[in-house]
Each structure stands twice: as structure tokens, then as C-alpha cells.
Amino acid sequence: MPADHQDPRTYYSRIQTGALVIIAFAVVLFLLVQARFMLISLATAIILFSLTSDVINFIARQRIGPFRIPNWLASLAALGLISTALLILTSILLAQVNTVLVTTLSYAERAPSAIASLFGWLGDDIEGAVLNSLRSVEISGYVRAVAGQAGSLTQGTVLVILFVGFLFAERIWFATKLTNFFQDHEQAERVGLIIGSIIHRVNYYLLVKTAVSVITGLMVFAVAEAFGLQLAVAIGVLTFVLNYIPNVGSIVATGMVALVAFVQTGDPTITAAIFLISGAIQFINGNIIDPWMMGRALRLSSFGIIISLAFWGAVWGIPGMFLSVPIMVMLLVVCSHVPPLRPIAILLSREGLPDTETELSRGRRAGVLPKQ
After folding, report:
1. Would you list the DSSP string of 266-286?
2. Contacts of 197 by beta carbon, 8 Å cutoff, 6+ apart
3. In angstroms, rounded to a whole number, what is the distance separating the alpha carbons of residues 210 and 253?
């Protein structure tokens, strides 16, 4: 029906609904930005909790002779392991970042000349202009900014540990709360299946990504060590971390290795060799091994991943880039099983074939999804 023949009340109702959606999105975006430190810590805690939830259930089912390990003891053990692992990883990362920052300051004087020499083939004028531009950059200011962000990592780690502890304390009543909330056992069971599907997919993604990142970090470390780079350990650790950022992380890691090699050696041939070897490692691991191990577990659209990366990077910065894929997985699973939102799931999926209700039920029968 043409717009001029529509009922005015319907027309204005649609305008009002659209305006309310825009206002709600703006309010949510404002809250995401203003409370990002708290929300990033909470999102990280939820992911860690989901990673260990199945492990706790497995431990709680074990028996030591006639005794069965109580659920609370398994939860305390898991919380202790998570806390120890997070504190150790934070210490290692801060130590390597500190090493990079100190070395950056020591290289700050000769780095502009080394980088400007790359443009020498364009002429002396271009090389001089690049050199003057680089010398005008206040490297110490950027170093202080990075150091400040690294310092907040410890605070975030403590907050994540607290959130995980509270989640463990609440987990034994989750199924009861879910049933009482919906007042319908079947609906609560279906929501539980959806949550289980999200946990399963996010866990699988993180396990595969961790394995590939460890392999990539070790290989890049071996290359840096073979060429005698001073920051070989830091390069390996940062490559491991950056590989969690889809697409962009591997490019940044490869550029970082090449830049460190050129600033330290000043030899274009060695730099090119390191760049090509590191790039080949990233390409093989990221475009062959990673997709092969992922299989059809995620089925995310590549374009959707880039959009999610850009959005969460703009909202939450670097932490948002790390969380972009898990958040997209959650959106894909939820939209797949909510009929009005299924078109969004079609756009987010790789082949335009999101999960169906049959696949959700199959996950329960196969024992893939946890029972509530």
C-alpha cells in the first residue's frame, strides 16, 4: 500500500518505533563507552567462566574411592588455577612490554634515520622530509601512554578474578533461576541449550586460537633468535598475544618483527628475509592451519568479522578487538534461534546457513551441550 494511503496512526507509530530504536542504540553505545573498563573485565570473566564450567562438571563427577569430589571444592580449585594463571600471564606480559618500551627508548635516536632510509630510493628530498616528520614525533609521550595502559592491566586482572569468583558462587543455582525466570520448563531448557551452544563454540574457538597462537609465537621467536634479534622473547610473546586479534593482529605482528629487525640491524636484506619468513609463518598458520582446525564450528562471515573488529575496536579499543569474535559468536547463536532476528544470523554466517532447531537438539543428544 502506498505511504500516502496508510493509516496515519500506523505511520506515526513506525516513526516512533524507529526513533526509540535509535535512541536506545545511542544510550547503549554511551554506556558501553563510559563503563568499558568494567564491561571488558566482566566479558573476560564470563569467557573464562565458560571455559572452565565443563571442566568443573567433569571434576565434580569423579570419585576418589567411595568419595565424590564436591562441586564447591571443584569450583575453588578452578578459581585458584584461573587466578594463578592470570597473574602469571599478566606478569609475563608486563615484563615483555616493559622490555619493549625500554628498548624502544634506546633505539629512539637512530630509529627515524633507519626508517627514513627506506625511502631513499625516492630521492633525497623525500628521505629528508620523512626524517623530519619522524623526528617531530614525541616517542616518549607514546611510550608513557602505553605504559599507563599496561599498568591498568593488573587492575583489570584483579577485577576479572573477582567476577569469576562470583560467577562460580552462583553457578549451582543457575538452572533453578533460569526455570523460575521463564516459569516454563521447556522454554528454560531451550534457553539453556542456546547458552550451552554459545559456550561450546566460544570454547572451541579459544582453544584452537590458543593452539595456533602458541605455534605461531614459538616459530616467530625461533626466527628472531636465529637472526640474533635482541627482543626475540618479547617478539614471540607479543606475536602470541596479537594473533588473538583476527586478520589485523598477524599483520601488525609481522610489521613489528620487520621494524625491530631493520632498526637493530640496518640491513635491508636481513630485514626482508625476516619479513618474508615471518609473513609466510603467519599466512600458513592463519589461512591454512587455523581454518582447517576451526572447520565448521564457527561459520562466521569474514566481512562480519571485520565489521565486528572495527566496531568493538572503536568502542573498547584493543581489548574490544580481542573480544570481537566471541561476541560475534554469541550474536550468531542467539539470532539463529530467535525467529525475528534470524535474518541477522544469515548475514553473520559464512554460507548464510545459521544453526537450526534440529542442530540445537542434536547438540543435546550428542552430549555436546551441557544439561541444565
Report:
1. --HHHHHHHHHHHHHHHHHII
2. 333, 355, 360, 363, 369
3. 16
Helix (H) or strand (E) holding 64: strand 63-64
Mean pLDDT of 349-358: 69
Gap between the Cα atoms of 338 and 357, Å rounded: 10
In whole angstroms, give the CA distance from residue 41 to residue 243. 20
Break the chain down into helix, strand, coil percent, rounded to 5: 85, 0, 15
- Cβ contact 326:206 at 8 Å: yes
Q: Which residues of 142-159 are buried (b: 16+ CB within 10 A; e: fewer)?
A: ebeeeeeebeeeeebbeb
> Which residues does residue 227 pair with via DSSP β-bridges, in sequence order?
none
Q: What's the farthest any 2 CA atoms get from each other in the chain?
A: 82
* Span 320-344, pLDDT tens digits: 888 888 888 888 888 888 888 888 8
Give CA separation, 262 vs 20, 257, 281, in Å: 54, 9, 19
Are 28 and 39 contacting, i.e. CB atoms less than 8 angstroms apart? no
What's the predicted TM-score (pTM) here? 0.76
Give kind and range of the element (H or E) at residue 325. Answer: helix 318-336
CB neighbours (10 Å) of residue 262? 21
DSSP 198-258: HHHHHHHHHHHHHHHHHHHHHHHHHHHHHTT-TTHHHHHHHHHHHTTSTTHHHHHHHHHHH
In whole angstroms, give the CA distance from residue 112 to residue 131.
6
- Residue of 293, 315, 181, 317 lying closest to 245 (CA atoms): 317
Place of cell 601512554: 145
Contacts of 314 (CB under 8 A, 6+ apart): 320
pLDDT tens, 121-173? 666 777 677 667 766 655 555 555 665 666 677 888 888 888 888 888 777 78
> Measured in whole angstroms, how far is the alpha carbon of residue 117 from the centre of its chain?
36
| Alpha-carbon gap, residue 276 to 254, rounded angstroms | 9
* Residue 36 DSSP SS3: helix
| Residue 366 pLDDT exceeds 50 | no
